[in-house]
Each structure stands twice: as structure tokens, then as C-alpha cells.
Amino acid sequence: MPVNLALGHVSNDFLIAALVIYSLSVVAFAGDFAFGRPRRAVASEPQVRERASTLAGVGAAGAAVAGPAAGAPAAADGGPADGPAAAPAAAAVPDSMPAVAAPPLRAVAQAGRWVQAAMALSAVAVVAHTAAVVTRGLAVHRAPWGNMYEFVTALTCVAAIFFLFVMVRYRAWALGVFVMGAVVVALGLAETLIYTAAGQLVPALQSYWLDIHVTAMTLATGIFFVAAVLGVVYLVADRYSRRVAAGRAEPGNGIMRRLPGLEQIDRLTYRTIMFGFPVWTFGVIAGAIWADQAWGRYWGWDPVETWAFITWVLYAAFLHARATAGWRGRRAHYIQLLGFASLMFNILVVQVFIAGLHSYAGVS
Amino acid sequence: MTDVRAPEADPFESAAEQDDREDRSRDRAAGTLGFADWLKWGWRQLTSMRIALVLLFLLALGSVPGSMLPQEGTDAAGVQQYYTSHPALAPLLNHLGLFNVFAAPWFAAIYLLLFTSLVGCVVPRTFRLAGSARALPPRAPRHLTRLPRSAEYTTVLAPALAAEVAATVLAGHGFRLRRPADASGGAWVSAEKGYLREVGNLLFHLALLGVLVSVALGGLFGYKADRLLVQGTTFADTQSALDEFYPGRLVTAADLGPFTITLNRFDASYITSGAQRGQPASFDAQISYAAYPGGPVRTDQLEVNRPLSVDGAKVYLIGHGYAPVFKVTDARGQVVYDQATPFISGSSGNFLSQGVVKVLDAQPEQLGFTGVFVPTAVEAGGVLESVFPAADNPVVSLIAYAGNLGLNSGVTQSVYQMDTAGMRRLTADPQLLLPGQSLKLPGGQGTITFTGYVPWVSLAITHDPGQLPALICGIAALGGLLLSFMVRRRRVFVRARASGPGTTVQIGGLARTDASGGFEAEFASLAAELRSAHHQAAASRQHEGE
């Protein structure tokens, strides 16, 4: 079926619109940092180190059963701490995120105008972005991730949708500026450097396994993308808290104060990767089945296969590192960032510059 | 806050495999060590999580050269090229096995150590799991409000009855229960759930082991072969008829399926306009095949992504090209050559293909031709170029030779190359021929006619008995992974104490793992359910009493 060029243009327009609105949402997230109402009780500003070990987890603070019996002390949450900053968190330190009692959307409403605006803009941008991906798919009559440009467009869409959910569910809008900022950068680079007009696929890609394998890989990459941004935020926050502990930095840095505690970022990252890892595993298995159908072997150490394997091994190492003394926290995050680096290397270098069976990038 | 509990503080002794691994790596024996102690120490090191992590890193790192350097298994020509361009470095790399990384002993050492470490960890855990599957949950702690999750309320039910009601509710949710043996310890219920988590974790690791075994199975009993097949010809799957044959370690020529395949017709279509002009749109090979010579003939359509299954093997369409047909008469006027000759397209694109014609029976001298086939020829600056992959304007360009082809010397020659050492060049310039045109050789040596062209396809024939086991193991690994990520191992305790006129019910809960979170919600709903069950039981009791 011929490519619907008009619809292809509509898709491009949607994408440009999404890019602009994402940028505005990043401005609004940053505006919250600069001008937003502080969410932390400034009076008893706790040591950052203590905050790091606040165990009020993602969406879990005050989890004692609500209702008449809620008299159970909230301090019961102060269990043994994990990670490098294991200072005792005896007192129930005010959580940087609003109390859980309010349902997520109401929590957004209570978070101030800047956050409301940023979240609304993010939501609109995600809708425009999704529309861009869908119209591209309709224009080319196939899953719209058949070349590098389409792949980046789709994976950033997954990352944005996923993170929008995370922001609402876990009240993590303090991280919005970083994740949405990264989405803007990735999308902008895709638009300027590797734009590919809507077109047909070579016979090797004309298989329903494109829908299965590449969809899984796109989903997993989008999820790992979010985890990588969270990992960078974790490392920065961790460095800051160690500098504060060593007396080399002033506690109470304006941006740091607004970030969730180290423990929360860490757990959010961990859950994100726990979501992405099975999807990646499934994608690799689906790819092996497709490779068997197309090339006559399910695994042949083609460069792209090799790097998918390396990525898998590194994320598996992250999952194991988190359960190993001495490797939790910072080191584990270095491992997952290495995993994401290998993933990016696979997409941006191996698929484009190293000859192999997976040379479909369509980038010239 | 349960979910972030560090493993050290984990009350789930039976599932605390990580701590165990760490402890074992820590307890370094001091003082004098016997050989057995050293062995034991070595084994503990190997099965420690730290070493497993290091091995995982090495596995990732060791794979890198396999993607950056050409590999013998997938790109033998690339290896040759590397030898030419890096004559000093290449032998060294070869010595290190870097041109065949995934079959190199050092790579095997990494993954075998990793899998040994895995077995050393997984097997004891399997026994422990089997043990804990029979064991009962621990007794309820005295003060449940100290647990990560807790709730408290009062009821008018007697403590024993309240515990009874709680047990019924928890059993209804599939918890394994433990009740006090006698009344001296008070009224309580211990409940535990989520053993599938550890099952899933073990399944995942064992399935990975299964994948390795499946790959080995394919390496021993499988084979891979290539065959170029010109349209209108037939071949039988025997070793002599195959162009390339890569048997597994335990495969002999007798294991080959004796099926036959004929290529009736091959069509390729290309995008004809726009930015993607020249990109292939579809390939389609019409074949007929028989499972054994003389067997019933069936027809099928072979496409990319659509292999043929025949006689335990699979046949794949992996490439195609053009075979120009030449008719050669020698000096005597006899037709000594009349056949399609496959030409191979290089990297120049648009199927500009090269090949040779070797006429062994020509008299008085053997004749040879090196040629280029151009499917859609355009002359640009005196050079022939192909501007489109389909044969829209086919042209061949030939250089003729006469002399000795050197085929009797005993050295095998490629059919795509000609040794011109014993030959004399007959035409100074390459001679262009359109279909139907002939070239008269100088000195009455004969004539060559370009009568037309037919397509050829290259087929890959594979047999891999490890394929299905690998798939099953892969799916099992994924299932195990999902189980271990999604199932929470958790305990809920209920204690009922008489206090004043009524009974105080305390509920406590904890979950191991910070996996999927959500235990707080589960605990809240369980607590609410227990509360309403107690409330109802009290109401009906009151009702009966009236």
C-alpha cells in the first residue's frame, strides 16, 4: 500500500507541537523550582543526610491503615536504613512529597500553580506526541518504528507516557524537569539529525515480528530511558549529600531540597528497571524467534544481538548488585547507567556504523 | 517501611539467599588451611554474589570484541580483510581468539564459571525452598504494632473466637496458617504467603542453564548449509550438492535430509519512485520440493521471513542475484557451453554483478571470460553503472581469454574466480553485449552469445535440535522472572487480647522485598476485611444472644 504523504505531514506537525509543549512544560517544572511554594517545612530543616534515609517510601508514607485505628505511630516506618546514608531516621521527618492520604490527582492540584501548569502541559504534549506516532503509523500502514527516527520518536513517547504515570502515581513531579528535559533533547536531536520521511520497509522487516520484537524493544528502551535519568539525578543527589556530610557543601540547596530523598529515587529507579527488564527479556526472545524465521538461526552474535545481550547482562548485574552488600546505592546506579550506555551505543553506533544483519537504521 | 529493608535485617531467613552468599564470601578462614579448606574457601568465593557480579561484568566485557572485530562464524571475508589491512596485529588477535570470541576458551571459561556459580547458589536454595515449603510460619510476635504495617481495633468477641474468625479470613486468601498449640500463649494467628516468588527466582536461573544446554545441543547435533540455486534447476540436500556445509560436532553427511528442491521462478520487486527508489519491496521464490528423491512433489512459496520446513530441516531465502546465460561455440563451430552462470553482486549496489565463464571443452584451446552484469546500465564518464536493481536495461561486459584454465592442476578453484596465469587475453577492452548480441573472438577462436539471464537465489538450510528446548527455556526464564518480580513473600499476624470488657485485636504485617510495592495497599484491605469480619461476627453473635 502506498505511503500516505499528507498524513505523514500531519504526523510531523504533531511532533513539532509536542516538542514545543514539552519545552514549555520543562520551563514550568523549572519555574516550580524557582518560584514554587516550598513543600518542605523550612522551620525544622532536617539534615540532608537524615532526609536521605527517610524511609517514607514512594507513595507509602503513613501507610498505617487509615481510619479509626490510624493511631498506630507513623514512626513505625523508621526501620533500618539501606544504602550509604544509614544515619538513623528516628524522627518522622516531613516527607518531601505530599501526604499519601490525598488521591494522586488531588495531590497534583494541591502542589501549586507551577506544578499544575507543568503537569497539564506534559499531558497535552504526551497526547500530541502519541498522535504523531499514531498518524505516522497510519501513514505508512505498519508499526511506526521501522527506522531510527521512528524508533526514537516512539521510545521517547513511551518514556513520556510512563513518566507521566510515575509522576502522578508517586508524586514525583520534582523529577519532571529532568525526565521531560531529556525527552525534549532526544526528540530535538531526532528531529534535526536523523529525520526520515515516511516510507516503506525492506522485505526483511515485513513481518508481524516487527510489531512484537521492536515494540517490546521500544517499550523497554523508553522505560530504561526514565530509569537512566533517575539514576543521574540519584548520583547528583548522592554526591551532594556526601559533600554535605563531609562539610564541603552547604545543606539546604534550593534544588536539592525539592528532590525526593535518595532512598525514594533509588526505589523508583529500581521499580522502573524491574518493569523494563522483563520487557527487554521478552524483546530479546521475540527477536530470537524472528531471527530464526528470517535468517535461519535464533542467535548468531550479530553485533546488534551481542549488544542487546551486553545490555541484558548489565541490567541483570544491576538487579544483583542491589542485593549485594557494598554494591547498593551509588555503584548499582553506575551499573544501570552503563547498561543504558550500552543500549544507546547499540542504537546510535552499532546499528548505524557497524555492518550487520540489523542495518535498518535508514540514517545516511 | 518494609519494602526497603536491607537483606541483613530480613526476617525471612529461608529466602535470604543474598545474605547467605555474602556471608559465605566474608568468612575467610584464618591461620593454617588444609587442601580441603582451600577447596571449600574457593567454592564459597565462586558461589558468592560478589564473584557472580564480577563474572557478569566479564561476560559483558568479553562480548564487546565479538561485535567490534569481524568474526569467523559470521564474516569470514571480513577476517581475511582484517589480516590484509593489519598484518602485524591480526595474528596476535587471532592467537587471543578474538576473531572467534564466542567459541574462544576464555569466553567459555567465563560463562562456565558463571553457570557453576549459579548452580552452587541455586541448588542449595532449591533444597531450602523445599524445606520451607513444609515448614510453618513463625509464631506471632508479642507486639504487632512494632511491625512495619500494623492496625489495632477492639471487638466484643472473645479473644479465641476473634482469632478463629481471623484465621478463616486469612485462609480464604490462600495464606498458610499457624495457630497456637495450646492456649497458654494467648490467641493468635500467623499467616504466610508468596512462596512462588522464590520458585520463580529459581525457575529463572535454572531456565538460563537450560538455554545454555540447548545451545550446546544445537552445536553438537545441528548443521547449517548454503546453496545457490539458479531458476529452473534442482538440487538434493546431500553434502556434495551443497556449496557450504557447517556440520555440528556430532553430525555426519549421513544425517542430511535427502530432500530435493527446484526453483521454478523467482521475482523481486522494487520501489520505483521517490526517495526510496531502488529499495526492495518484495521477494518471492516459487519452489517445488520432495521430502526424498522420487517422493510426492509439493509446491511452496519461499519468502523472506517465511522459511520452508522439510524433513526436519528449514530452508531460508537469504539472497538473490542474476545468472546471465551464455552460449559459446569454439573454433570448430561446436556449441561447447550453453548455460546460466551465476554472477555475484558486490557492495557496489544495484546488483552490479561479477562472474566468470570457464569453457573447458573448447578446442583447440580452453576459453575463459571474466564479466560484469549490469541490470540497469547507464554509461557515466566511460564507466558502466547500474542505476536500478531490476533488470531494466541489462548489459554484460566481457573480457575474453584463451589458454589453460589450470583446472587439472589439482588445486580447487572458486567458480566465481578465474586463474588467468596460463591464459592469453584476447580482447583489449571490455566488450559490451546486449541480450541476443554475440562477440566474435579474434583469430577465429569462436563466438560467445549473451542469450539472456535468469535469477538465482541463495538458500540457507539449517537443522537445530536445540531450537525448541531453547525457546521453552527462554519462555520459562521469562515466566520465572515475572513470578519473582510480581509475587511478594509476606506475613500477616493477628493477636487478640482481652482488654476491659472487650478484646483488642492487633494486626501486623511485613513483606520481604522491595519488588513491586503495593503491600501497604494489600495490608490495608486485609485489615479492613478482618475488621468487618469481626464486626459482623460480633453482630450475629449479639443477634443470637437476644
How are the secondary structure elements laid out?
The complex is a heterodimer of chains A (364) and B (546).
Chain A: H1 5-35, H2 48-52, H3 104-110, H4 113-140, H5 148-170, H6 176-193, H7 208-245, H8 254-258, H9 262-295, H10 303-321, H11 330-353
Helix pairs in contact in A: 1-4, 1-6, 4-5, 5-6, 5-7, 7-9, 7-11, 9-10, 10-11
Chain B: H1 17-26, H2 35-46, H3 49-68, H4 76-85, H5 89-95, H6 105-134, E1 149-155, H7 159-172, E2 176-178, E3 187-193, H8 196-221, E4 223-230, E5 234-236, E6 244-247, E7 260-270, E8 280-290, E9 297-302, E10 308-310, E11 313-330, E12 335-340, E13 344-345, E14 353-359, E15 366-374, E16 377-380, E17 383-386, E18 395-403, E19 423-425, E20 431-433, E21 438-441, E22 446-463, H9 467-486, E23 489-499, E24 502-512, H10 519-545
Antiparallel strand pairs in B: 1-24, 2-3, 3-23, 4-6, 4-22, 5-7, 7-8, 8-9, 10-11, 11-12, 11-22, 13-14, 14-15, 15-18, 16-17, 18-19, 18-20, 21-22, 23-24
What does this structure look like?
Chain A is an all-alpha fold and 364 residues long. Helices cover 64% and strands 0% of the residues of chain A. Chain A has one domain. In chain A, α1 runs antiparallel to α4, α1 packs antiparallel against α6 (176-193) and α9 packs antiparallel against α10 (303-321). The longest helix of chain A has 38 residues, at 208-245. By secondary structure, chain B is of the alpha+beta class. Chain B folds into three domains: 7-134; 144-193 and 490-545, Alpha-D-Glucose-1,6-Bisphosphate, Chain A, domain 4, CATH 3.30.530; 223-463, no CATH class. Chain B has helices at 17-26, 35-46, 49-68, 76-85, 89-95, 105-134, 159-172, 196-221, 467-486, 519-545; strands at residues 149-155, 176-178, 187-193, 223-230, 234-236, 244-247, 260-270, 280-290, 297-302, 308-310, 313-330, 335-340, 344-345, 353-359, 366-374, 377-380, 383-386, 395-403, 423-425, 431-433, 438-441, 446-463, 489-499, 502-512. In chain B, strands 4, 6, 10, 11, 12, 21 and 22 form a seven-stranded antiparallel sheet that branches. In chain B, strands 13, 14, 15, 18, 19 and 20 form a six-stranded antiparallel sheet that branches. In chain B, α7 (159-172) crosses α10 (519-545) and α8 (196-221) runs antiparallel to α9. The longest helix of chain B is centred in the first third of the chain and has 30 residues, at 105-134. Chain B is elongated, with a radius of gyration of 38 Å. Chains A and B meet through α9 and α10 of A and α1, α3, β1, β8 and β11 of B.
